[in-house]
Write a structure and sequence with these properties.
mainly alpha; globular
Length: about 60
């Protein structure tokens, strides 16, 4: 689960989202559980939204 709460009107910077992605991978030891995978996918979508890119290009 994510460390910080989110609201629909709150936009985090790409650096903050990227740090959370890196932290997730570090905590998981490089092997995501099904719950971690859900969180990772959500973070990729959020990262894509704040960078103007697509989640596909971040993978």
């Amino acid at each position: 689960m994510s460390r910080s709460p989110r609201s629909s009107d709150s936009v985090r910077s790409p650096a903050v989202v990227n740090e959370e992605i890196r932290d997730l991978w570090q905590r998981s030891g490089g092997c995501l559980s099904p719950e971690d995978e859900e969180e990772y996918q959500r973070l990729l979508v959020e990262w894509a939204a704040v960078t103007g890119g697509s989640a596909r290009s971040a993978a």
